[in-house]
Amino acid sequence: MSDLSDVIRILPTMKSGGELLSALEVLPEYDSAICDADAPVRLMALSDLYRVYVPNQMSLEIYSKLYLALMRSLQKKGTTLAIQQRNQNYRAIVQQEYSGIMGGSDSFTIIGASGIGKSSAISRAITLITENRIIEVENPHTKIIPCISVQCPFDSSVKGLLLEILRKVDEVIGGNYYPNALRARTTTDMLIGSVSQVALNHIGLLVVDEIQNVCNSKNGKSLVGMLTQLINNSGISICMVGTPESAVFFEQAMQLARRSLGLRYDVMEYGEDLKMFCEVLYSYQYVKQRTEITNGITEWLYEHTSGNISVVVSLIHDAQEIAILNGREVLSLESLNEAYQQRLSMLHGFIQPRQKRQTSKTKRKTAIAKADVDVEPDGEFTIAGLVSQAKSEGVDIVELLKEHLPVVEVAV
Questions:
Q1: Rounded Cα–Cα distance for residues 391 and 397 (Å)
Q2: Are 52 and 28 in contact (CB under 8 A)?
Q3: CB 143, CB 4: distance < 8 Å
Q4: If residue 134 lies in a helix (H) or strand (E), which one and from where to where?
Q5: Distance (Å, whole) CA 349 – CA 396
Q6: At what angle do helices 57-75 and 118-130 cross, to 10 degrees?
Q7: Which pLDDT score, from 0 to 100, does residue 314 have?
Q8: DSSP H or E stretch at residue 345
Q9: Distances (CA, A) of 183 to 95, 167, 170
Q10: How many other C-beta atoms lie within 10 A of the C-beta of residue 183?
Q11: CA angle at residue 162 from 158 to 165, to 5 degrees?
Q12: Contact, 85 vs 235, CB < 8 A?
């Protein structure tokens, strides 16, 4: 235990470089003898693929950002302003006039495409930063949770998120904040004061995941405004995590944009990081006939996953599962392609392979048009132009298409 004024000294030393990469990495124990085990045993062990974590540049940046944000938040816990803010928060709870005198630490966003490993990187970073410990302070006696992670409600309910924060705090320190708030039937303004007080006393860093839910909700701006108020009334740092559509929402207004500066990532490019990741995953084989990864397989994986690492994991996992179940017992391009066609069919619309293959076993009639969807190379006409012509002349668009797009029926 220690005083609140020097609570930041309890945090583990900030890591960097090779030491940080090694600490973030998660490689489940693997014994090649598992390949001789019965099929059910191997199928169960195959799930270890989902535990593999290979850090990259995104992992390092997220770790540094979260560590520094937590440091800034904890530095404010033992100040005179923190004591004054507690009095102001109490006034809010009893519905008196109050103000946020403490000022915020900061808020920032981590924005990236779905499946690139944002949540995994955040989880690994938090585990490393906090070592899964609660900070216990002697003077004054209190418990501080270094980091709490919550999900933004689907309807962006302000009250729903505030209650979830209280529930998470109770879950960790064994408090009664959540049931007390439900019994009191507090208003949203009173609840903001209460959560600000709890955050000031017990929370270091707040991570709000799925922040893209604010985009399509009428409560979106209200929820972001509440988070801003929470920062100013508690001094904690808030990290908002979401997909690229949330960036469009925050760019709408200056007051939103300045609260959402942070990190932004896309799917992994074809390069050394992707090659290393595929090599590590490929080393976890549970089929009887072991194969080595080649440049051709790595390129195929990139082309059929668009560099989305969660899809790479699913593809290699399902390819092995199929190979075990059908008795082929080898992780080959044939198995990978089978998994791509059977298990990832719903993702085909979101993944654009570089080389499109036309394969079909059933005979059907296919319309082959000589025109592209948008513009003919010679510029004679466009589909949009035909639609506009049909509307202006009041004719059937189908008849116009027949005139301009010769159709040939072929058996495939």
A1: 8
A2: yes
A3: no
A4: none
A5: 30
A6: 50
A7: 93
A8: none
A9: 17, 14, 15
A10: 9
A11: 145
A12: yes
Please name the residue that has the structure tokens 């270890």. Answer: 48
In a 13 Å sphere around the CA of 203, the CA atoms on its Cβ side amount to: 31
Give DSSP secondary structure letters for 81-109. Answer: HHHHHHHHHHHHHTT------S----EEE
- Taking the C-alpha atoms of residue 338 and residue 335, their distance in angstroms, rounded to an integer, is 5
Task: For tokens 């995590």, name the residue.
Answer: 241
406 phi and psi angles, rounded to 5 deg: -60, 135
Whether the Cβ atoms of residue 277 and residue 54 lie closer than 8 Å to each other: yes
| C-beta separation of 317 from 311 below 8 A | no
Structure tokens at 93: 């709870």
CA distances from 170 to 41, 136, 177, 203, 234 (A): 39, 15, 6, 12, 18
Residues in the chain where the model's pLDDT stays below 70: 1-8, 78-80, 82-85, 87, 89, 92, 94-105, 132, 139-140, 252-260, 348-412
**The model's pTM:** 0.76
| DSSP at 13 | P
Closest CA to 311 of 358, 353, 359, 271: 353
